[in-house]
Amino acid sequence: MEVLKEKVEEEEAAEREEAAERAERVEKTRPAEVQKEEATLTQEMLRDLGKQLLEIQMPTPAEPPIVTKDTVDISNLPLSYKTNTLKEEHLLQVANNFSRQYSHLCPDRVPLFLQPLNECEVPKFVSTTIRPTLMPYPDLYNWDGCANFVSNFLTRVPLPDPLKPPSHLYSSTTVLKHQKGNCFDFSTLLCSMLLGAGYDAYCVNGYGSQALCNMDLTREVCPLTVTPKETVKKKEKAQPKKYTIKPPRDLTSRFEQEQEIKKQKEAKAQEEKRWWEEEEEHLLEAERAKPDPLHGLRVHCWVLVLLGKREVPESFFIDPFTGRSYSIQDDHFLGIESLWNHRNYWINMQDCRNCCKDLVFDLGDSVRWEYMLLGTDKPHLSLTEEEDEGMNDDNDTEDLDKENQDKSFDMPSSWVEQIDISPEVHSYKSMEPENDRVMEFYETARVDGLIKWEETPRTMTQYYQGRPDFLSYRHINFGPRFKKLTLTSTESNPRPILKITERFSRNPAKPADEDVAERVFLISEERIQLRYHCRDDYITASKREFLQRSEVDSKGNKIIMTSDVCISFEVEPMEHTKKLLYQYETMMHLKNEEKLSKHQAWESELEVLEILKLREEEEEAHILNISIYDTKRNEKSKEYREAMERVMHEEHLRQVEAQLDYLAPFLAQLPPGEKLTRVQAVHLKDACLGDFKQRLIDKANLIQARFEKENQELQKKQQWYQENQVTLTPEDEDLYLSYCSQAMFRIRILEQRLNRHKELAPLKYLALEEKLYKDPRLAEFLKVFA
Fold first, then answer.
1. Measured between alpha carbons, how far apart are the two ends of the chain, in Å?
2. Which DSSP symbol is given to 205?
3. What is the mean pLDDT of the segment spanning 149-163?
4. Which stretch of DSSP H or E encloses residue 759?
5. Residue range 447-471: average pLDDT?
6. Is pLDDT of 174 > 50?
7. Which of 76, 245, 449, 740 sits CB 3.0–4.6 Å from 467 for a disulfide?
């Protein structure tokens, strides 16, 4: 930066020409619609308008950031969040010098987005807010997984002013904790994850379409309706057998088949083209019907991924809101002001009249991209022969080395803590009051029209719909609760209210200058701010601020209303001149409204305590309705199932006993209830042994019959083979050998079973005879024979 300043002083003539050409080139970077609108105002009109605006001294409340300071507990944040190191201070000085020179050389361009405030109200350079981090999850290693996580995990919050970047840029740790942010917060987190995963990623500050900035996908094709391309698997040709008959020759023309397939593809392509043309016509008609008055002016931040690293074949954009990738020539991206990563900051010096289609993303080209720090690792473009000869001059080389040495500056390390994403994405909210909590209500179920209620340790936000007083939003900031010596409950010791912000919808029955749009009660500062609705053809709205004073002084005398109590800004001061009486009545009315709002806030706290108490009671005394088909948790069904299992088990035991009782079939032949005699006992023994002997013989005969059958079939097969051996094919021989092998295996098994049966049959017979002699039902009658 010092060398650039010396060049301006030493070579004024050359620098002026270069600055003029540069300004002319930069002027083309804004979209064509913006240039037409800006060209309608002359420089003199701009100066007069600036003077008139400077004369207006109306203190307007600043728009709150995405996550207000009251909701961020900065007491536990590390020191790097609250202060700047010497190297960071030096970097901020370099950034200020760079911004001043840029504004001097390019007065028509918007200010650079270099050093916004963080959550601790400390200015930080945007590059140091990026913290490259590799997540320890396989799903977050590729760009699509990171983009889907950021778009699904965070909640989109629109920019306070859609025409300029935000004044605050919070750390990714704070954004992850609160799970919401604007496009700059989304892009910073996504860029940090992509850089950690090895991608060449950058945050881009530019201009987007209305659909892109508002996350409007109504005009996009639903991905669920797109049919995926079917992959046709080639059928594997079966290898022809050696002795198979050749199929007849295919006489169909391959040329005719190819032409037919080509015609079908062309017809299908024509249908798809016709469908897309119809869709584009519908989209164009919708866009023509609703033109965007801020087209080309809406500020948006997205992520650029350059080709090269991680085998990325071509550069592309990522919209952090949706997680979708876009081509760098997509019409949604209307222009680029600047981009940055964790190492450097670049300004776009190319023409954006044709959106981003003609941009060359070679960051090493200082003509197209003006960089802030020299320590960039981007290669420069190849030089021509004339430029190469000029660069070979020793004096120029020494001057260039000296210039680069003065301009080089290492980027400080990121002030953000290590980004940590726990395996649980979802967090459990406790039932304790004054914690992070969101409640949603049915609109028709409540009289006050409350549809949503949000709470943090220091804030409470309420959203309304359909109220007769047109109240739509109420935000309350609390201070720390005063400590008391005695133990008191939350109800008896409420939190002090510091600020109440209320917003109202438009009431068509009132003029815009008398219809309040926003009402802010600064209770701690004893001020009340009013902002009225804007007229249809105006860009500013009337505002008033009242300074609250006590009605009597220290001596008990009434204080007279003076003009300095009310500071007002009227859009048309000649139309409405409010007298002191009107201002006094308005202030008295606002005081009553302030008391009412405080009372409603206190009632809301009590209502939340009652809801939480009711939820605790429901959780303690809950009775689940369990289906009768859920046999594991339904007690009645469980008892019935156990009883049925017990009955079935007993029945199974009886059946097993009946199967093992070898006398049961013979005892069933006797008359029921008759006492057994000795003759009958001997008869039962003989009959049981005879039956068992016969079964052993039958089993042996059955095995013998199967053995003989297998032998006969094997002999027949062998005889057939002897007769047809000459004419058999190799396949038939293989089948014959396989059959013989299986038949011999069965014959050997049957032979082994028969031999084993012959060995075990006498032993089994003797064992049964011994059991019969020891059976208690026959033992007393068979003692004589034992």
1. 124
2. E
3. 90
4. helix 730-774
5. 90
6. yes
7. 449
Q: Which own/partner pairs from 32-38 qualify as long-range (CB within 8 Å, at least 24 positions apart)?
A: 32/296, 32/353, 33/295, 33/296, 34/296, 34/297, 38/108
Q: How far apart are CA 281 and CA 284, in angstroms?
A: 5
Beta bridge partners, 644, equal: none
φ, ψ for residue 354, nearest 5 deg: -100, 40
pLDDT of residue 386: 42
CB atoms within 10 A of CB 405: 10
**Tokens at residue 133, please?**
């981090």
- At 371, phi and psi to the nearest 5? -100, 155
State residue 230's pLDDT score. Answer: 54
pLDDT, position 381: 40
Residue 42 scores a pLDDT above 50: no
Q: How would you classify the pairing of strands 316-319 and 299-305?
A: antiparallel
| CA within 13 Å, CB half, 778 | 24
pLDDT-derived band at 84, boundaries 50, 70, 90: very high
C-alpha to C-alpha distance for 545 and 590, rounded to whole angstroms: 11
569 close to 530: Cβ distance less than 8 angstroms: no
Phi then psi for residue 518, to 5 deg, are -145, 135
**Tokens found for residue 584:** 């006094």
Q: Are 502 and 598 in contact (CB under 8 A)?
A: no
* Residue-by-residue DSSP string for 685-734: HHHHHHHHHHHHHHHHHHHHHHHHHHHHHHHHHHHHHHHSTTT--HHHHH
How would you classify the pairing of strands 516-522 and 527-532?
antiparallel
Residue 243: pLDDT over 70: no
Residue 29 has pLDDT above 70, yes or no: no
Q: At how many degrees (to 10) do helices 183-196 and 143-153 cross?
A: 150
Query: For residues 303 and 204, is the Cβ–Cβ distance under 8 A?
Result: yes
Q: What is the mean pLDDT of the chain?
A: 79
Mean pLDDT along residues 441-449: 86
Cβ contacts of 586 within 8 Å, gap of 6 or more: 544, 546, 566
Residue from 333, 31, 326, 329 nearest 210 by CA: 333
Question: Residue 248 has what DSSP assignment?
Answer: P
Q: Edge to edge, what strands does the sheet with 459-464 contain? A: 437-440, 450-455, 459-464, 471-478, 497-504, 516-522, 527-532, 543-547, 566-569
Is residue 310 within 8 A of residue 198, CB to CB? The reply is yes
Identity of the amino acid at 245 = I
Q: Which residue has the higher pLDDT, 706 or 494?
A: 706
Report percent pLDDT > 70 for the chain.
76
Distances from the Cα of 689 to the Cα of 140, 333, 621, 664, 669, angstroms: 79, 100, 70, 14, 16
The whole-angstrom separation of Cα 733 and Cα 749 is: 24
Decide if 165 contacts 113 (C-beta within 8 A).
yes
What the block records as the tokens of 602 is 């206190």
One DSSP character per residue, 130-163 reads ------S-GGGSSHHHHHHHHHHHSEE---SSTT
The two tokens of residue 597 are: 């709002």
DSSP string over 335-355: EEEEEE-SS-EEEE-S--TTT
Longest Cα separation, the chain: 144
